[in-house]
Specification:
α1 runs antiparallel to α2. The longest helix has 71 residues. The chain has 467 residues and is of the alpha+beta class. It has 3 domains: 63 residues, no CATH class; 136 residues, Beta-Lactamase, CATH 3.30.450.40; 229 residues, Heat Shock Protein 90. The chain is elongated, with a radius of gyration of 32 Å. It has 10 helices and 14 strands. It has a 7-stranded antiparallel beta sheet with strand order 5-4-3-9-8-6-7, with helices on both faces. A 5-stranded mixed beta sheet has the order 10-11-12-14-13, covered by helices on one side. The chain has a two-stranded antiparallel sheet with strand order 1-2.
Amino acid sequence: MAPIRRRDGAWAALALRRPGRPYQRHDRRLLMRVVAIVSDAIQHMDRERMLGVRDRIDRKIMEQLHPKDLFYQFLDGLRSLTHYDHSSALLIRHEHDEELQVVAEQIAWTKAKSHRIGLRLALGDGVRQMLESGRIYGFDRRGDQWHEWTGKPVAYLAEWLDYNSGDREDQREASMLCAPLVTPDGVFGVLKVAGRHVGRLTRYDSELVEHFRSQAAVAIDILNRTESLQARMLTVERKHAMAELARSVSHDVNNALGSMLPLVQQMQDELEGGRTDPSVFREDLEQLQKSLQVCRRIFGGMLSFARGGARRASVGHVRAAVDTALAILKNGIERQQIHLSVEIPEDLPPVVCAQSDLEQVLLNLLTNAREASPSGGSLTIHARPHHESVQLTIADTGCGIATEHLARVLEPFFTTKPNGNGLGLTICRSIVWEAGGSIRIQSDPGKGTRVEVTVPRSSARPLQQEA
């Protein structure tokens, strides 16, 4: 009998048995040569498999996959190699933050989405110092105590990462790898792999993780660059949108103010001449009030949009976003004699998207719909719960989008408008994409356009409308 080795340990055994004649010493040497060849072949297969996984992730990086999708490609590759039976997670530190945030986690025994996404762990001085060493640490839990493989007194690092300690005993971590992601500027992330049984992860697994640290760094770098570029694009588009909105509502504001001035002058003349008729005076005041309400609604909507909100507050209410957008655009829609229909349930659940971002999506899409319908038609805004998401549909009966342009309307800087910047729909896609949703555009030239936006619902309570 001779052991076949794999992953730096005994993995199987090759046993020979023959009756009646004992084996000689040279038979043992021959058997050892055979198992050495088999072990080398298995090791070669494992290495080829690892290189195949690395190549697959490299291709995904070159395809400019969305960073969050790339994170899960990375974690899935690790699972296929280490066969961990608990979970793997990627935690990153955003610029100027003193915390690490769980941005991706894959749980071995379920396909359900991890509820740990977004969890933040504060970086204490001791933890930061251990992570900045750049060393991969391995731990096993015996009882309630974590122990580092080489006996170093760094168990608090495993305790810091053991955010599943409150789970059931059969779902708790008992083996853990901690791989810091470090640059000369300090730690910017941590890769964590966990097993459910003591000894489930070995030094061989830590060597596999070491091979993938550089790819994790690339994925995080792509995320940081994407977020930085998106933040700048949002700022540019918001300023452009404000300028466009100011131009588009100037006619409505001018009309409202223009109707007020003659009334005020007439009321002054009647008061000075003693010809005041109470009923006429009341009607004139009502007209002034309506004009002031138009101006207030328009400026209130623009102020709400310009003020925006904290992008970290990733809960948005569709009804409130529609109200803000229509406060700005409704008069222009009515002036163009476009029939407006809004169908939004009162108990519509909130969505996982910052309110200011949701308002920007609505303003961009409704402005496009209004501009596509210069001479009447209809505009429908419809929202409904859809599985674990909320589906928002904006449909118009305007000029539609040319077939050759439809495939490119979401590309940055592509526009058919004389004064457009080509960022409006790109920003919409980026916001919806970041929230984990999708955007779909259907159009029939000469008949209209239909845009479907699907965004995951939030666990927050629906917004109560004022009576």
